[in-house]
Design goal:
The protein has 3 helices and 31 strands. With about 375 residues, it is mainly beta.
Length: about 375
C-alpha cells in the first residue's frame, strides 16, 4: 500500500512531535495537530516517550490499514509497517481491528486487536526503539465471550499488568486483567453495575446513535490508570458515573467476585463518554460526546466542561504527551455506518487535537 499524505503540513517538529497547524478554528488553547482526510478516520492515539504519534484508524469506518504513524512533516504511514498494519496474512502477521492503543514508558506501543476468524483477540506490543515485535499475548475463551469488543485499556508497568475494558454485549461487560510476566489473563467484575450501560440514549445533534436497528447503549469503555499506578478509573460509555478500583485489588486473584465487587468505588459524575485520562492532580479528563465537548472530573468528583464547540464532533481517545499536553482524536463516530444504520454521513476532515493539562501527567496515559 502506498503511504497516505495529509493535505496540510506541520509548521515544525518538537522532539519528534508535530506542532499544531493553522486550520479549523477550535476553542482557545485547543490546537490542531493533524487534519485527517477521508480514508483516515482516527480511533485512539498513543504518544511514545520520545514523542512519536501512533494512531488506530477506527474500524467502524471499515479501514484497510488498522494503525498509522503521524510523521512530523505531516505525512502518515502504516505502523509499524505495511504488513502488520494490514489484515493478517497466512503467517498471522497483521491486525484484524484495532481501537485501543497505548504506549508505555519503555517505548512499547501496545495494540489491542479484536478477534478475527477463530475468535481470539490479541495484545500486540511493538518496540519502537528497536523497531521489532516485542510480544503477542493471546486472549481467548473463556476470558473473552463470543460478543467481545475489546475497547480501551491501561498499561501498568509498575505491576506488570494491563487492564482491558471489554464492552461486549453490555450486560456482560467486564474488565480483563493481563499479567505481563506470564501472559495469564482473568475476566473480572462481569455483570457488576459499574460495567453495565444505563438506560440512557446517546443523542448527538438531535440524532440517536444506533447499533443496527437498536438504540445504542454501551457498557464499560473509558479506562485509565493514575500516575502512581494505584487506581484504575473507568465507566460505562452509556453511564453518568465514574468509578475506580485499586490496582492491588484487581491483581489479587484470591479475592472472590463478591469481595472484588465490594472494592469498587464511585469517584464522581461524568457524562456519556468514550475516552478518559488522568493527571497527577487526580483530574480525570473526559470526552463528552453528546455535548460536543471535553470535560474534567476534579479530585472531588465534580464534573465541568472545559472545551465545547460543534467542531468537537465525537471526541474519542486521549493520550498524554511529554510536553504536558493531552492529545485527543475527533472522528464524528455517530455519523459512521456502524452507528448510523449503515450510512456514512461523516464530513472529513477528522482531527487530532491537543490542549494543555491542568497538572503534570505521565506520557502515554
Amino acid at each position: 500500500m502506498k503511504t497516505h499524505w495529509l493535505s496540510l503540513t506541520f509548521l515544525a517538529a518538537l522532539i519528534g512531535i508535530a506542532t499544531p497547524i493553522n486550520a479549523q478554528t477550535f476553542p482557545s488553547d485547543l490546537e490542531v495537530v493533524a487534519e485527517l482526510p477521508q480514508g483516515n478516520p482516527p480511533g485512539n492515539i498513543a504518544v511514545t516517550p520520545d514523542g512519536q504519534l501512533i494512531m488506530s484508524q477506527h474500524q467502524f469506518y471499515g479501514t484497510d490499514i488498522k494503525v498509522v504513524k503521524i510523521l512530523p512533516d505531516g505525512a502518515i504511514q502504516p505502523f509499524p509497517n505495511e504488513a502488520w498494519a494490514s489484515s493478517p496474512n497466512s503467517d498471522g502477521i497483521g491486525l484484524n481491528n484495532v481501537l485501543g492503543i497505548r504506549a508505555d514508558s519503555d517505548g512499547i506501543v501496545w495494540m489491542l486487536d479484536n478477534p478475527g476468524t477463530g475468535g481470539t483477540g490479541r495484545l500486540v506490543g511493538w518496540d519502537t526503539r528497536a523497531d521489532i515485535l516485542h510480544r503477542v499475548i493471546y486472549l481467548a475463551a473463556p476470558v473473552i465471550p463470543e460478543d467481545t469488543f475489546l475497547n480501551d485499556f491501561a498499561v501498568d508497568l509498575y505491576n506488570d499488568a494491563i487492564y482491558i475494558a471489554d464492552t461486549a454485549g453490555g450486560s456482560n461487560s467486564a474488565l480483563i486483567v493481563v499479567d505481563l510476566e506470564t501472559g495469564y489473563a482473568r475476566r473480572v467484575l462481569e455483570g457488576h453495575p459499574s460495567m453495565q450501560p444505563e438506560d440512557i440514549l446517546i443523542v448527538i445533534d438531535g440524532q440517536t446513535a444506533m447499533l443496527g436497528d437498536a438504540e445504542a447503549r454501551i457498557g464499560v469503555n473509558p479506562i485509565t490508570i493514575d500516575p502512581d499506578n494505584e487506581w484504575v478509573y473507568y465507566g460505562a460509555m452509556s453511564g453518568r458515573s465514574l468509578y475506580r478500583i485499586r490496582t492491588s485489588d484487581l491483581l489479587d486473584s484470591i479475592l472472590s467476585p463478591a469481595q472484588l465487587s465490594a472494592r469498587v468505588e464511585r469517584f464522581g459524575d461524568k457524562p456519556i463518554s468514550d475516552g478518559i485520562t488522568i493527571d497527577a492532580g487526580n483530574n480525570v479528563y473526559v470526552t463528552d460526546i453528546t455535548k460536543n465537548a471535553i470535560g474534567v472530573v476534579d479530585p472531588n468528583g465534580t464534573y465541568r466542561i472545559i472545551y465545547q464547540d460543534e467542531s468537537l464532533s465525537w471526541t474519542d481517545g486521549f493520550a498524554f504527551g511529554p510536553d504536558n499536553h493531552i492529545y485527543v482524536t475527533v472522528n464524528q463516530l455517530q455519523r459512521s455506518p456502524a452507528l448510523n444504520q449503515g450510512s456514512d454521513l461523516s464530513q472529513p476532515p477528522y482531527y487530532l487535537l491537543r490542549f494543555p493539562s491542568l497538572d503534570a501527567g505521565v506520557v502515554g496515559r
